[in-house]
């Protein structure tokens, strides 16, 4: 199902079973968010490409650089956009049925959407009234939600006077106010100070512990790795790796590096490198003067090649074949640097 992000192949990894399995049982999908071979284009621009994913209840983080497709996946789940190909279902519901979907979903976009003229309390209450709750019910639920995000003191102040972190929290309050089973939050930890961040994460964990879905996005794996039950790494509209963090980290660490070797006798060097345990694949050039080597261990590869050169084989040059892929993995694992 790969879309070939930056040309990366995906090694088989342990994962948490979030990868879509063909013909998954209907009973299971009633409890999951399912993408089946979903593609979405914005005109010529790729949003996501052939994404297949099963997200079980719990806390799942979508992680990837700017423009990788995180918001597109969230908007597809919430029925704000529809796939060009494939299908999406959210706990058995189609996103094309917004009335039912909105009853079980809460969505906080990354945009600072709360109207400045309203107080935090009015903003959350109005949202609930639109869901059909009575005024009294709406006010009660709004107050409870504002309590959950520690905004009761500022509840009657205008949103215009809120800090960035407070505006982030009032949107979270609006998303949780009707106690949805599926909470989708686009970059919800942006702009929060450490104390509020810790409280917010505790709220997510409480939600997840109740068997609900909490699906959030982040640019930075390190921001969400320890808090997530599963992570989904996205680049260029395709899933790079997904599952429990340990398995995903292993996949990243073990992703093969590619090198092009130019040399006099490529067949001989290929046969010597083939004995190395870290070498996963070798392709010989037709001219027999070059080869492409995939290795899981750059240091071992460098040592092996030095040994080969020192034993009299002529190696003209060695160049990394795909620095973009390496840089992407380094970005993901290195905290978005
Ligand atoms: N409305 C749109 N019109 C045209 N292209 C779009 C639109 N929305 C998204 N895209 C493109 O689709 C791709 C995926 O974008 P998306 O917003 O899903 O990524 P993202 O991972 O959420 O990025 P960020 O971290 O910056 O929010 C990008 O190339 C983006 O430019």
UniProtKB/TrEMBL annotation:
Coiled-coil blocks: none
Location of region: Disordered: 1-24
InterPro entries (UniProt xref): AAA+_ATPase, ABC_transporter-like_ATP-bd, ABC_transporter-like_CS, P-loop_NTPase
Domain of life from the UniProt record: Bacteria
Species for this entry: Paludibaculum fermentans
Domain ABC transporter: 33-261
Family the entry assigns: Belongs to the ABC transporter superfamily.
Lineage per the UniProt record: Bacteria, Pseudomonadati, Acidobacteriota, Terriglobia, Bryobacterales
Protein name per UniProt: ABC transporter ATP-binding protein
